[in-house]
Specification:
By secondary structure, the protein is α/β, with parallel strands linked by helices. It has one domain: 3-Layer(aba) Sandwich (Mannitol-specific EII, Chain A), CATH 3.40.930.10. It is built from 6 helices and 5 strands. It has a 5-stranded mixed beta sheet. A hairpin with a 2-residue loop joins strand 2 and strand 3. Helix 1 packs antiparallel against helix 6. The longest helix has 16 residues. The protein is globular.
Length: 154
């Protein structure tokens, strides 16, 4: 799946409240646009269960919460939403860095989830993309940076 398309479908969300990862995930799920087939409560509970098993903070101020199971009914419902917390969050990251940007990943299959997660991790290693996240860049900037990558690199 094209990461720029997933980001465009999921959108960018600002000033999401939450003092803890659990609070933030609940607020994020309440804020983002969801396909009609995905229930907010079901998604929030699935993400909370996944987070309780293993924190999804990856370090460098980034977290990648997800429900741990495919929830999109097809590829047209899959998305990646980016959310910027109102205040940085202690998410129990391996490097201890507070989280400043969060990617909510909703996939239609386990394989697509892993492919999306891998692509996002590579993107976040790109200094321009990472700097844009820390500057709370809008969707147009993030998607533009993804599209500017050579084919097969995003």
């Amino acid at each position: 799946m094209d990461i720029a398309a997933l980001l465009t479908r999921g959108g960018v969300w600002y000033n999401i409240p939450g003092a803890t990862s659990a609070d933030f995930i609940e607020s994020m799920v309440a804020s983002v646009s969801l396909p009609a087939s995905i229930g907010r409560e079901e998604l929030a509970q699935a993400c909370a269960r996944r987070e309780a098993n293993s924190p999804t903070a990856m370090g460098r101020g980034l977290a990648f919460p997800h429900p741990g199971i495919p929830m999109a009914k097809g590829p047209e419902e899959a998305f990646v939403a980016v959310a910027y917390p109102r205040f940085p969050i202690n998410w129990r990251a391996p490097d201890g860095a507070p989280v400043k940007a969060v990617f909510l990943i909703i996939s239609d299959s386990r394989n697509e989830h892993l492919t999306t997660l891998s692509s996002l991790a590579k993107l976040c290693g790109d200094e321009d993309f990472y700097a844009a996240l820390l500057a709370e860049a809008p969707l147009e900037v993030l998607a533009g940076l993804v599209r500017a990558k050579p084919a097969g690199k995003n």
